[in-house]
Amino acid sequence: MSNKPVSDKLVQKYDQLYKNEHVAADEQITVQPVTLNGWPADRKQALLHLARPGGRLLEIGCGQGDVLAALAPHYDEVVGTELSAVRAARTQRALAHLPNCRVLSEPLESLLETAVPPFDCIVWADVIEHVVDVIEAMRILGRLAKPGTQLVTVTPNVGFLPQRLNILRGRAPNTAIPWLPNEGFALNPLETPMLDAGHVHYFTFRQVEILYEIGGFKPEQRLGVGRNFIWLRNWWPTLLSGLICVSGTFRGTPAG
């Protein structure tokens, strides 16, 4: 799916982004689990809302572990992955009090061996836009699944109305920090470690659903997310939801 030198460079970049999260071995680390009261207002709450409980769960790109901490009581085992070894080590320590949780520092293609598939539920939020070969990634997810496995994907929506207006104005659809006026750069461009925080793809709802089909998953539910006008966002999510949220079920052998 990717060659090792490119993968190593990505790891170095993400370690650079997360270097300030490194703490001393004897320092206490706490994680505040994600909570959900009412309709999901952000990507993490969307995972909590959509994930079907029971069995084994895999979260790709588990970050600081707040979603894993919230979901762990509802599964026999939860496994999180992080490309950055710096962040993975920190998250493993933060979740050490959860006996059914483990965190791996592995690229996606290594999970077929290290994560001990299959899983009953696979979730990833703000990850797919960082993956170079998304078609191969979806096929790998199919091999991590079994018939009936749920897949929940959350990623920025390039078809969101403000993004469309930006493009009409000749502006780039910077989806990592969409409200900054600097088109994917930090306020000081020279201090930008990764353009648009490392986003290499931009997606629509339909693109994500086609990728589901490629991986052997049947897309079943679209979800519009936001803090206001929830009914409106779900009436026309492709235009009015800043996030793409798609849930589906594995139904057979991945395409190809």
Structure description:
- The protein is an alpha/beta fold and 256 residues long.
- The chain has a single domain, classed as Rossmann fold, CATH 3.40.50.
- Helices cover 32% and strands 16% of the residues.
- The protein has helices spanning 4-18, 43-50, 66-71, 85-94, 111-114, 134-143, 161-168, 205-215, 230-235, 237-240; strands spanning 56-60, 77-81, 101-104, 121-125, 150-156, 217-223, 243-250.
- A seven-stranded mixed sheet has the order 3-2-1-4-5-7-6, with helices on both faces.
- Strand 4, helix 6 and strand 5 form a beta-alpha-beta unit.
- Helix 6 (134-143) packs across helix 8.
- The chain starts with a helix and ends in a 6-residue tail after the last strand.
CATH architecture: 3-Layer(aba) Sandwich
The first-to-last residue Cα distance is: 14 Å
Spans of at least 5 consecutive residues with low confidence: none
Looking at this structure, what is the CATH superfamily? Vaccinia Virus protein VP39
- What's the count of strands? 7
Note the total helix count.
Answer: 10
Strand arrangement across the biggest beta sheet: 3-2-1-4-5-7-6
As a whole number of angstroms, the C-alpha radius of gyration is 18 Å
Largest sheet: 7 strands, mixed
Text of the CATH class? Alpha Beta
N to C succession of SSEs: HHEHEHEHEHEHHEHHE
Query: What sort of overall outline do the alpha carbons produce when their principal axes are compared?
Result: globular
CATH fold call: Rossmann fold
Structural class: alpha/beta
Number of domains: 1
Strand content: 15-25%
Helix content, binned percent: 25-40%
Mean model confidence by pLDDT: 87
